[in-house]
Amino acid sequence: MINLPILPILICLPLIGLLFILLSSENDENSIQSKKSAIWTSVSNFLLSLYLPFNFNKEIPHFQFVNSFNWFNSDNLKFTLGVDGISMPFIVLSTFLILLCVIYIYPQKKKNMRMYLASFILLESFLVGTFSAIDLFSFYIFFESILIPMYLIIGFWGGDRRVYSAYKFFLYTLIGSVLMLIAIIFLYQEFGTTSIARLLDYTLPFYIQVWLWLAFFASFAVKIPMWPFHTWLPDAHVEAPTEGSVILAGILLKLGGYGFIRFNLSFLPDASIFFTPFIYFLSVIAIIYTSFIAIVQEDMKKLIAYSSVAHMGFVTLGIFSANMQGLHGAIVQMISHGIISAALFFCIGSIYNRYKTKEINYFGGLSQKIPKMSFFFLIFTLGAIGFPGSSGFIGEFLTLMSVYSRSTLVAFISSFGVILAATYMLLLYKKVFLGPINSNIDNKVNQLHVYETITFLALSIMILMIGIKPNLILSYTTSSLDRIVSLYPITIF
Questions:
Q1: 219 found inside a domain
Q2: How far is CA 186 from CA 71, 247, 316, 349, 425, in A?
Q3: Tens digit of pLDDT for each residue in 348-369?
Q4: Is 493 within the bounds of a domain?
Q5: Number of H helices, E strands in the chain
Q6: Domain assignment present for 464
Q7: What are the Cα distances from residue 387, in Å, to 11, 341, 421, 425, 482?
Q8: Which band of pLDDT confidence, cut at 50, 70 and 90, is reported for residue 228?
Q9: pLDDT tens for residues 432-458?
Q10: Is 472 in contact with 465 (CB distance < 8 Å)?
Q11: How far apart are CA 250 and CA 235, in angstroms?
């Protein structure tokens, strides 16, 4: 294996591309130069990110591709990057979805296109940094930095209530993260290090674990988001531009689940066992309650937003089941949801670009107007309801199996979420694509553009690949999850 500093490259390459985008000609009305810079940057970064899985040693549970730099000339406070089987799939997912967003943006005309593209390229750098940071200080900096480009994407290029939604998104996340910062400062004062690898070797008293667990929970519960901390999400999705919704649902929500695994479960096992009934309670409510809300939605983006909260409920159930099936299910569910939700938001964006509305009742018989889109949307719908052969099935099946081993009642109630998901997704497909053509739709037939076909086809292939061969992900995660699973008894409540 070539000793390549791949993680610093994956973080810095978007920043170099950012400079080319910002320095492109202001007189270029269609921003062709900046678009080409964004395409080359995102393609290069995605291809480089594939270096990680192809050179990753699946038998090693520890961090790989490690690079470390001193902060403030301190040996105890370092900027350290590395990946293990838990974080590596999320880095590849991040570079993949950013690439598809840039491809989808390419033919569009937006106000201040250079800054729009720059926001996504900057976001890519921060996302890779967040998933590859293996010390608490670096993680917090990248975790919070993500708020800046995402705030701009929603606040400047969103819908009519974009400013309100951007502020709500920013404040919810920031307030939750303040408590996490206090927990990080405490750990540094207590142990003299922010290294995740070194902190795993220490054991804290139960009462300390409880307070630290709540501090990390405050941040990650908002980000994932868990009920009742989810109210910012529907507003953000409805007002965000299509590509903003893709990144928000496809990657940003996964930071919460990733944080729960990386910090709450790994650092604070006693507190995690203590709070598991609490997490199960919130997760079950999220699955059932938000599914019913999704059924009555009239806006397509808001329906998918509430469905995301329900799907993330399965993720938290799997994580805090704290067994191999549950953690495998949670990670596959996060990757799967990232792909499927991105696909659904891309489709809704394409529909909006043609008809300038997201209202479900406006449509009907759209399959007769855009048959190729109806085919792709059906694949994405089946993935969202966990149809066998799709990636969604693997995540939900493993999660429910793991929960059943902990609590039969919780598994039984949660399983109704699968039925409800089928209800609102199939109703959405029926109302929009099936039946007679609604009189609101004009007689012009709009076929898919090349960039839309490329985007939908790439996402469809990923959904089917993971559904048919989930070991593409699970083979990387097993060794890294073994240590976490060993911390938890067979029955936790």
A1: yes
A2: 18, 32, 26, 44, 45
A3: 999 888 888 888 888 888 888 8
A4: no
A5: 22, 2
A6: yes
A7: 36, 15, 11, 12, 29
A8: confident
A9: 988 888 777 766 667 888 889 999 999
A10: yes
A11: 16
